[in-house]
Specification:
alpha/beta, Aspartate Aminotransferase, domain 1, Aspartate Aminotransferase, domain 2, about 45% helix, about 15% strand, EC 2.6.1.-, aminotransferase, transaminase activity
Length: about 400
Amino acid sequence: MSEKVQQLLGRMHNELADTKPSSIRAFDQEASAIPGVIKLTLGEPDFNTPEHIKQAAIKSIENNHSHYPQSAGTPGLRAAAANFLDKKYNLNYTADNILVTVGATEAIATAVMAVTNPGDEIIVPTPIWPMYISILKAHGVVPVFINTAEEDFVLSFEKLKATLDEHGDKVKAVVLNFPSNPTGVTYRRADTKAIADVLADRDVFVIADEIYSELTYGEKHVSVAEYLPEQTILINGVSKSHAMTGWRIGIIAAQADIQKELFKMHQFTVTTATYNAQDAAEEAFTNGFEDGLEMCKDYQKRGEFVYEQMTSFGFTATKPQGAFYSFCKIPESWNIGDWDFCRQLLAEQKVAVVAGSPFGPGGEGYIRISYASSMENLQEAMVRIGKFVDAHFKTAANA
């Protein structure tokens, strides 16, 4: 590195020096280079985008939708998204409440940047998707972690109230992500209402990441926006519900006056999302109301299989409730760290899962398995994990 480059690096954003690239992505890339590997690493649906959605994108291109769409999103998509949220979750949104983003990740960054100043605090229940932690820190926002591991990974209203009382006006927002990445846990109506009751009388935003809302097992998803419509900045999209991760279409739903402020941050960051991808998402929200149901049934079967297998090996895990992740605790008697476990499993059995540590407090000592993979892959992966456990931890597991 030249002296000039070194000097210039020292003049960049202060927080970037301590912000590391995703360890999960790095591990996935490392695993991808191994022949015969079974990757259960990323939150990537193994289903293809439904045919009617693909045809809508083709028609969009044929109609020369290759120019700039409106920055907030096409009117058709915004109306379709509002209708979808209303019909599915009783949220009473209109197109004026919807902002179309480049995936849910941009939605998160837009929300964080719009509601905070450097030094402000955001409450973050953990374990949580590591991107939240990095986005907050990169923008000079202080994450206030609440470890939910002892409450079966559901934020308790008691802990939330105590944290809000302790930190006072410094807190600008609370992040809620359910169904959860990485735990696969979701919040039931009683859980959601209890949290809403704590927040209702406080001038605090709720950044509600509900991207997995269509993938719940048992009870129907209940959005926190049903209880806190004025305070909630709701994040959703088509990536998980319609197997459209690569299309990069997310949405933010919020009260119209708040949405106008969010829009400014979005417009000056990305201008707008891709036109033909928006047309495809409009089709998904309009004529794909039930597209996620068959996927959801399949995910539930896979999740139950993984749960049964992993617990039989000696891991502790929560029964699948939503999304497509199993968060499994390594028995302490095995005396191995989560990353060491993952690296050794990859080297010896060619199975890639990710460590729990990157997901924040409460994630240490866990591994996350993404069961967004075929049952055939999952069955073979479980055979290999069983062999790995037998080879190294059988005595400890039976102790």
